[in-house]
C-alpha cells in the first residue's frame, strides 16, 4: 500500500533539512505571520486606509501609542491625513506581496517557456530568444520598468490609470525578469535534450511539447525554485522602488513603497513613524524571503548533502 503524501513529505530530505535549519523555520514563521496579517487586514485593522470617508483629519499626526500624545486604537500612530499607520502597513503589505508574487509567476512562466524552446530546438530560435534577453540585460532593470510603466500609464484614460496600476506594475517587473529563468532553463534543457531518454522519446515520435513538459522540465526545476524564491524578494523591492519613485501604486491605494515615499516627505519634521514602520515591514518581508531562498539553495544542492 503506498504511503500517504504527507508521510512522504515528512520522510523527505527537504523536510529534514528544514527542521534542522533554525533560520529557515524563523523565516517561514515570520513570512507566514506577515502574509496572514496582510490578507486578514480588513478583519483585524481599526480602519480601511483606502476609504477616504473613514479618514478623520482631527486624528492626523498622532504619534505611536507608547509615545507622548499617542492614543488607541492607533498603535503605530497616524499620518498627515489621519490614516492609521498599522492599517496602511497591513493593506500595503498585501498589495506588495500580491504584486511581487504575480510578477514572479508571470516572469517564471515566460522564462520557462522560452528557455525550454531555446534549449530544446536550438538554432535560429535559440539565437533570437537569447539576443532579445541580451538586449534586456544590457539595460538597467529599473529603467526598463519605469519605461514600461510610463508608456502604459500614458496610453490609458485618466479614469483607468489607478485601476490598472497593479497589473501595469506586474508586467513592468516581469518583463526584465524572465531572462534569468530562460537562461537557467535553457542551459539545463540543452544538457537534458542530449540524453538517452530524450533521444528515445524522439525515436518513438513523442511530441516535442510533451517531451519538454514531461521529461525535460522536471529535471530543470531545482535551480528554478531557488531563483524564483530569491527573485520574489527582489520583485517586492522593485515594486517598492517604483512606488517610491512615484510610478507605482497611487496614494489612495498605497503599497509599502508608496507609504515610504509619502512618509519620507515628513521625516525631518518630526513625524518619523510615517516612514520608519513601513520601512521596517518591507525589510522584514525581504529578509524572510531571502533567508528561505538561502536555505532552499543549500537544501537542494546535491554537493552539500
UniProtKB/TrEMBL annotation:
Q: Which GO terms describe its biological process?
A: transmembrane transport
Membrane spanning stretches: 24-44, 90-123, 135-157, 163-181, 216-237, 271-296
Q: What is this protein called?
A: ABC transporter permease
Q: Which CDD domains match?
A: TM_PBP2
Q: What GO CC terms are in its UniProt record?
A: plasma membrane
Location in the cell reads: Cell membrane
**Which organism is the protein's source?**
Qingshengfaniella alkalisoli
**PANTHER family cross-referenced by the UniProt entry:** ABC TRANSPORTER PERMEASE PROTEIN, OLIGOPEPTIDE TRANSPORT SYSTEM PERMEASE PROTEIN APPC
Q: Which family does it belong to?
A: Belongs to the binding-protein-dependent transport system permease family.
Arranged from A to Z, the UniProt key words for this protein are: Cell membrane, Membrane, Transmembrane, Transmembrane helix, Transport
Q: What region holds the ABC transmembrane type-1 domain?
A: 93-293
